[in-house]
């Protein structure tokens, strides 16, 4: 049996990749993808904890969480598309209308 | 019946509310009906009060407690005795005739409903003033007539001079009212009640009490009486606060008639008579009242001698006649003062409405030297005006004669040391009064017309709606004097003590008649027989004429002493320092401070999405570290 720590290492690695991508990459679509990676890393952690604790409700919860992630992705993509259409800009550092 | 007398107040109030709220949406005919009927209703009920009072009843009725606060208990109630009844009759009857006249005079004015609303409110305020059974209601009416006079004097507010005159009337009145209010406060803290009956019961206790003001011991009753008299000086246009009344001519002419005859200026005389038990206890206050009255009577009559504006001459004559009334009150002949108030209301309203009729015919012209020979074109106006002039001149048999003679006699016969002085001034004034009134008659109605042919063609008699009130008032001016008001008021106001024998009454009467005739004869000589005389006199006494023409430069003096320093202070201090530095400093300073703090912390919000993400991560790391260390 694969020990829990392996799953957790996988989860942490995925999360770090997603986080680094989100901070470093300027492309909005890539940033969204990075967001998804972070999201799924958390799901991996949740599912594995649930398995090792023999509590199925955690795995059910992951399914919900995936559904919500799908919604979030739709909305995120729609926003990105709207921004790109209206401004023609696809780089996060150039979108700073909210600067104080 | 007693409680229905409140309707006297409610009718005009209802008329006011109707005309101010709905008047705009109904026809002018309806507005005039409402305006006239409301005052007529009050008149009917005021006649009932007279019949009640004749039966010896004094009605005091409290409706409800209006203000209740510790010692202060003010009820909304009325006191109807002889004095109130006579005032109610004068206010309602003369006020009603003026309302009727206004229907013709204000015909076609765009502010018609507004005008009638204010007129009704004016009558309501005055009725409240005379009917109230306590000083708070008196004060309420007192202020309300001041407010209404402002509304009506500035009725044609588009005209700068009219709105200025309205403000002047209001502000000058405020000065007097300030003293009046303090007088009421002082009276309250002395006797702890403001109801007339209770006040009069407790006042004798105050005798010989003094008030210590900065080391000066001042007789309490004298102080109260004088402070209250301050209000009367303002409201009744006596020296030194008379300056608003001549300017009040800017309003529509019926308003002048209303202010001068029925409402407003007579309030001061009413107040002094109403509070006669208080004034009787202070010799000093009585002397001040008498001398102020007599000097004002003489002083304003001299100004009236040379003015050319018809309404202004009549306005100065009002100031002068009110002076008579105060002089009468000052020699304890309150009854004679109220008698003169009552007859004066008729002939003064008549004079003003006559002047209004002339203005109507002359397209608003007021300079008597641009008129002349009007009697052929306006017979009714001429005859009624002549009757009023004869009445005010004190020709025997007409009402003005009786009341004026009464005042002169009581002044002459008074035991007070200043009685003779008052009498001399008033007798000279009687001659001056006759002179300047007949100057109007002879210059405006006799001789040749001084304008162009074209203008003379346009001169016409006024419509019946205006001439009928003139005729009624003329009949009144002749006959109202036969009702002996002083005798009627005697149970209430008492009879003055006489220091000389009754035989001398004939002499006083003869002197006053001669004074009147001399005035008329002089006017006739100067303006009919020898029209060059006035000009020669003017040239001979140039300086004197100039002083009179400029009304003793009092307006200029007040402007120099009070108006300009106030404006200077307002400009240099209030505006430049208080307003711009302090008020605007605070108003603009707070947002500026917030803006500054904001610009200090604003750079945190960079708008860079990824920076926010970094901050979030750092935050989470800090949290995690804190939790792990715990």
Polypeptide structure, described:
The complex is a heterodimer of chains A (100) and B (630). Chain A is elongated and about 50 Å long. In chain A, α2 (28-52) packs antiparallel against α3. The longest helix of chain A is centred in the last third of the chain and has 31 residues, at 57-87. With 100 residues, chain A is mainly alpha-helical. The model of chain A has no long low-confidence stretch (mean pLDDT 90). Chain A has helices at residues 4-24, 28-52, 57-87. Chain B is mainly α. Chain B has 27 helices and 4 strands. Chain B has helices at 7-21, 28-54, 82-105, 112-131, 135-153, 160-191, 196-202, 220-235, 244-247, 253-262, 267-274, 276-280, 283-306, 310-330, 334-361, 374-377, 379-392, 399-413, 419-445, 453-458, 464-479, 485-493, 504-529, 533-540, 542-549, 554-601, 609-629, and strands spanning 59-69, 72-80, 210-213, 216-219. In chain B, the strands form 2 sheets. Chain B has a two-stranded antiparallel sheet with strand order 1-2. Chain B has a two-stranded antiparallel ribbon with strand order 3-4. The longest helix of chain B is centred in the C-terminal third of the chain and has 48 residues, at 554-601. The N and C termini of chain B lie far apart (91 Å). Classes of the chains: A mainly alpha (100), B mainly alpha (630). The A-B interface holds A 19, 22-24, 31, 92-93, 95-100 and B 602-610, 613-614, 617.
Please describe the topology of this protein.
The complex is a heterodimer of chains A (100) and B (630).
Chain A: H1 4-24, H2 28-52, H3 57-87
Chain B: H1 7-21, H2 28-54, E1 59-69, E2 72-80, H3 82-105, H4 112-131, H5 135-153, H6 160-191, H7 196-202, E3 210-213, E4 216-219, H8 220-235, H9 244-247, H10 253-262, H11 267-274, H12 276-280, H13 283-306, H14 310-330, H15 334-361, H16 374-377, H17 379-392, H18 399-413, H19 419-445, H20 453-458, H21 464-479, H22 485-493, H23 504-529, H24 533-540, H25 542-549, H26 554-601, H27 609-629
Antiparallel strand pairs in B: 1-2, 3-4
